[in-house]
Amino acid sequence: MEKYLGIDLGGTNVRVAKVLENGEIIEDIKRPSLAEKGKEAVVSNIIEMLKSIKDYKECQGIGIGVPGPVDTKRNVMTMSSNLPGFAFYNFADTLSDIFKMPVYLDNDANAAGLAEALVGVGKGHSIVYYITHSTGIGGALVIDGKVLSGKNGYAGEIGNLIIDRDRQKYNHLNAGAVETEAGGLAIARIGKEILGDKIQSAKDVIDLAYSGDSKALKIIDDMAYDLAVAMSYIGHVVDPDIFVIGGGITNADDLYFGKLADYYRSLVHDGMKDVLIKKAILKEPGITGAALLTKSRR
Amino acid sequence: MEKYLGIDLGGTNVRVAKVLENGEIIEDIKRPSLAEKGKEAVVSNIIEMLKSIKDYKECQGIGIGVPGPVDTKRNVMTMSSNLPGFAFYNFADTLSDIFKMPVYLDNDANAAGLAEALVGVGKGHSIVYYITHSTGIGGALVIDGKVLSGKNGYAGEIGNLIIDRDRQKYNHLNAGAVETEAGGLAIARIGKEILGDKIQSAKDVIDLAYSGDSKALKIIDDMAYDLAVAMSYIGHVVDPDIFVIGGGITNADDLYFGKLADYYRSLVHDGMKDVLIKKAILKEPGITGAALLTKSRR
């Protein structure tokens, strides 16, 4: 079975792993990413970590998941708020020269989606749409085992989909963007507005909903509807075989997946109602998907 | 240069053509489609037309554009309101047996999009999103010369995208669907509401707007914004290299393409603003694209 090196590079931590073609993680190292020390320090750190992996030379390639949009043709990030200096910085070629193997870069949500499509719950399906339902909301479109990154690496920036144009604008996203209405931060904000200062996080709202609080249940119900509206857009554009939904909020799947599916089906054509909507199953989709970039793109 | 047979099958008329690989139409026949006489009559008619094409045997395959969603794996329509009896009716195999060449079926909007991507204004671009802006609104996603049809053939059913959930529901589409707010029928309806019974069609509104009527100009401006909202959804899902917009309303392109582009750019991330938004250029995208299905899918 082929083996790949995967790097999950975040603003705080970086992970490096050796991963089998079937998604199994053989070896795994985690360190601070040293983003504050500058890009050269970040890359030196990664090189050291890669070299410390046992038998790293037997791997077929290196895949890197990064926190921002990527131009996959030029193998560079096009925007980088969490990793200063990384926009248009080509460190893939540096790694490729040192390790004598191909290096592939992609957005972390795209990497996670690829993992779920290749070795997770999306396995065997032709068109997989992956959604991270977490603090924010992101997505990835995987067609026949390949991620569609888009012209500028912005395919999957679904947090910015407007689900109701009459809502308030909160940040750089559109007014009424699904992320600012149905993401984790949004649930915390709405919870505080409606339930008061006892709410500090999305989890507080979810816990109250589980206890049967009607106001908290209403917040979760609205969240499910708003997310379903955004999913109906994705459905009409790509008509996927399966939606795979991962991220922290999906720990409360029994609270909202049923409603989400019902609302989705109410918003699409009859012939589209048989789509699968499933919870992600991989424990480590980010690092797994980064490693599988080589399998997907080589 | 390779040659293909193309069939543009509508509820009223059917066209059959011999088309060169570069999109040039060599020979072209049009007849009533005989939909009211039943599916066997429709197919017999098509067989006759194909056989009357000079040197039809030298063609590499037959492509058929049909007015409804298609399961491209099974080569059948999955829904057919304009061609009674054609849902799940496999006439592609019948034609393939008779003409001893491959036969490919796809939705007519997908065929038109494929034509613009391969030999029209989208030529040379990797991700082309084609929109028909006509009586209704439809779309097609073409990635590296191949149409994404989706699980059930519903990819591109963008007329159903909700651009404002607070509007009225008019037909089988969602309340606030872009087709019922920015399509040709919608412009006629809104025109009549605002400008009175002198408005009979979208063209009447457009003519008034050209003459400088401020109410008509406002209707066109709202239409451009609503269409831009739907395009922003497509942009965040697939981040195309180019939007190609065809259909009857684009005859008024100088009236609204500038606004459309400005509104689109105001609704997407900074890194996505360099997308191209162009008017379709092919005179006969439907029949050309049907013929090119063989080139794309063989």
3D structure, described in words:
The structure is a homodimer. With about 300 residues, the first copy, chain A, is an alpha/beta fold. Chain A folds into two domains: about 5-115 and about 285-295, Nucleotidyltransferase, domain 5, CATH 3.30.420.40; about 125-280, ATPase, nucleotide binding domain (Nucleotidyltransferase, domain 5). In chain A, about 35% of the residues lie in helices and about 20% in strands. Chain A has nine helices and twelve strands. In chain A, the strands form three sheets. Chain A has a five-stranded mixed beta sheet, with helices on both faces. In chain A, strands 10-9-8-11-12 form a five-stranded mixed beta sheet, sandwiched between helices. In chain A, β1 (about 5-10) and β2 (about 15-20) form a beta hairpin. In chain A, α5 runs antiparallel to α7 and α6 packs across α7. Chain A starts with a strand and ends with a helix. The interface between A and B is large, with 47 and 46 residues.
